[in-house]
Specification:
heterodimer, A: 271 residues, alpha/beta, 7 helices, 31% strand, globular, B: 320 residues, TIM Barrel, 8-stranded parallel barrel, 4-stranded antiparallel beta sheet, 16 strands, binds flavin-adenine dinucleotide, binds flavin mononucleotide, binds FE2/S2 (inorganic) cluster
């Protein structure tokens, strides 16, 4: 965990509400693994106090990037940064996707801005010999990002839009399930990784568990400190016996968690 | 290192600190979590997350929400109980050059005694009796609103331990001086204030309370003026060491608390925004001392209070 005062290198708008912010953080960059997150200070007086957590989207030398969707004041403030502005960032935080180098095939399921940590994972996964099947769903064609990169980095990439304006039409979970019906799944060789809206994660986790395939999900919860001291980010644990406690701290035990450790009621709780 | 500058030392009654900056309970975990950015060595003392006799799962999430001027939290005192605390949390802190404060909580009055007894013989330097937690069913803040309960808890705990005692006060009382008197009469060594204000937020889209526990405690910059006023009130009735907190976001706030009467200060919520705040406050206090000609922090503590009351006395004299 490092506190870095970093210069903004670029802010690239991708669509009406998505952008990538890149900043120079030579101390943070080499430590970042896929699934790690950053905590951005929003310096606009007392209007916004808490830092805003964002996944590491990419690392390029000493440059660290986040892919951000504008949803409120903090993300809007970040989208308005200019090249050369100073950003106070803490990172890398949390536990990333865990070792899948022994797997033969990884099914990666990304929904919306959940693309961010999985893009980074997919890019890194090229260095070990594993088959990657990337399912990426969004509302419409306009909401699909980095199509070329994803095609290049993955063994196979399936795009899904709710309105059918690009790729398959429907929900990514349906497409994942029908795809998997046509292949032989194996608990030893296959792994599922996913990040996106909770209803999607819920179905992905249920599906993987029904097939007894390990499933790693990257979750979100409301974070106070991002560093394990406030106990605000907790999510309910499925097995008290195994985990010894009723809740995990998502900021330090996650944000990537083995789906079998999560009490499924988490996905339907208010956040 | 400026955190160890002798001008920052606090020596008042039982309060002996190498510098006047503490972490507030519940915002610094068990001391080690933020080590790489907020080393416990930077602090005069670290107050650890509140503990109870038995482990507690804590409240249903969401447990925290940002509002104008601060945050509302309803953690619900999630902790693994005093036995685990003594076995696993305290010993690793011995290596740090800082005082350690155990924040203890009870649903029944006797709970405080049970915990205090188990802390005897551990490296704990101070026990902070928390009678102000708004997130504890029964006990907690209910004790803190009742001078008789305060007196009785302090007396009982005092009989069970030789560790110096702090009392953490709630702002949610009509007359805080009554609570301080009751505590002092029964042997409290130090008072700490304030804990959070009871508060609530509603999501206007779902039309439901935001927090899983519905209500929680408000902290952060918005509470500072109210906290300063309470320090001022407490100073009127006691000469005990006072640790002030509530909305401290930088060294200027720390100085303000000290001028009002605090001998030391604690940072809570702002750790989440700037975990390296302790060093900055100590450095800021030293700079302030250089500019304004103070030789030790004890000269700052209560400065405004003393001068205000002296000049008032002088005014009275010249009129009569
Ligand atoms: C581990 C993690 C990784 C994330 N990665 C990304 C990412 O890569 N890209 C991206 O666009 N978004 C990501 N998010 C979500 C992002 O943090 C929120 O969208 C952002 O905080 C909203 O801030 P705001 O001020 O714009 O919105 P606000 O109007 O303040 O809030 C809108 C919503 O954002 C969420 N939110 C607000 N404050 C916090 C907080 N302190 N902690 C957690 N959630 C909060 C709440 O659900 C809230 O209802 C991630 C969240 C987490 C927990
Ligand atoms: C997330 C959180 C958890 C807290 N937990 C405790 C606790 O366990 N015991 C306690 O005495 N105070 C607790 N507090 C109160 C703080 O110690 C402090 O009194 C209060 O937050 C005011 O200071 P601040 O405005 O600097 O945060 C907690 C506060 C927060 C924000
Ligand atoms: S956000 Fe504070 S413990 Fe996780």
């Amino acid at each position: 965990m490092i506190v870095s005062q970093s210069s903004v290198v670029s802010v690239t708008s991708l669509s009406a509400d998505y952008f990538v912010i890149a900043f120079d953080a030579p101390q943070i960059a080499p430590l970042c693994k896929p699934g790690h997150f950053l905590n951005f200070r929003i310096e606009n007086n007392y209007d916004i106090l808490l830092r805003r957590p964002m996944a590491v989207f990419d690392v390029d030398g000493s440059i660290v990037k986040s892919l951000i969707k504008v949803v409120g004041k903090g993300t809007r403030w970040l989208s308005q940064r200019r090249v050369g502005d100073q950003l106070n960032v803490i990172g890398p935080l949390g536990n990333g996707f865990f070792d899948a180098q022994n797997a033969r095939r990884i099914f990666i399921v990304a929904g919306g801005v959940g693309l961010a940590p999985l893009y980074f994972y997919l890019k890194k996964a090229r260095s070990f010999s594993v088959e990657t099947i990337f399912f990426y769903g969004a509302r419409t064609a306009n909401h699909l990002l980095f199509i070329d990169d994803l095609q290049e980095f993955s063994t196979q990439c399936v795009f899904i839009t709710e309105d059918g304006s690009f790729g398959e039409k429907g929900l990514s979970t349906d497409i994942l399930e029908s795809y998997c019906e046509k292949v032989n799944l194996s608990a030893q060789n296959d792994i599922v990784m996913s990040c996106g809206p909770n209803p999607m994660l819920f179905r992905v986790a249920q599906f993987a568990e029904s097939k007894q395939i390990p499933c790693q999900v990257s979750l979100e919860s409301y974070m106070g400190c991002g560093g394990g001291v406030c106990l605000s980010c907790v999510i309910p644990a499925r097995s008290y016996e195994q985990d010894g406690q009723a809740f995990f701290k998502l900021c330090t035990d996650g944000p990537v968690i083995d789906s079998r450790r999560i009490d499924m009621k988490f996905f339907t709780m208010a956040h | 290192m400026y955190n160890n500058d002798s001008r920052l030392q606090v020596n008042k009654g039982k309060l002996r600190l190498k510098n006047p900056v503490l972490s507030a309970s519940g915002t610094f975990g068990y001391g080690k979590e933020l080590e790489s950015v907020a080393n416990p060595d930077f602090y005069g003392a670290i107050a650890l997350k509140g503990i109870t006799v038995n482990s507690r799962a804590g409240n249903t999430p969401p447990r925290l929400v940002e509002v104008a001027g601060g945050i509302i939290n309803a953690i619900g005192l999630q902790n693994d109980g005093v036995k685990d605390f003594v076995k696993n949390k305290v010993l690793p802190l011995k290596k740090y050059d800082t005082a350690i404060v155990a924040n203890i909580n009870g649903i029944k009055e006797d709970d405080y005694c049970v915990i205090a007894e188990q802390l005897e013989g551990t490296p704990i330097d101070y026990i902070e009796i928390n009678v102000s937690c708004p997130n504890l069913e029964g006990g907690g803040v209910e004790f803190g609103k009742n001078a008789r309960s305060i007196g009785s808890i302090v007396k009982k705990v005092k009989e069970r331990t030789s560790i110096p005692l702090m009392l953490k006060l709630t702002p949610q009382v009509t007359d805080i001086t009554e609570m301080v008197r009751a505590a002092e009469d029964n042997g409290i060594d130090i008072v700490t204030l304030i804990n959070t204000y009871p508060a609530m937020a509603i999501d206007i889209n779902t039309r439901k309370p935001v927090l899983g526990n519905v209500v929680g405690g408000f902290s952060g910059p918005g509470v500072k003026p109210m906290a300063i006023r309470l320090i001022w009130e407490v100073k009127k009735v006691t000469n005990l060491p006072i640790i002030g907190m509530g909305g401290i976001c930088g060294w200027q706030d720390a100085i303000e608390f000290m001028l009002a009467g605090a001998d030391a200060v604690a940072v809570g919520t702002w750790h989440f925004i700037d975990p390296s705040i302790a060093q900055k406050i100590n450095q800021g206090i030293l700079d302030y001392m250089n500019i304004h000609g103070f030789k030790s922090v004890s000269e700052i503590a209560g400065y405004t209070w003393r001068h205000h009351h002296e000049s008032k006395k002088n005014r009275h004299n010249c009129c009569t």
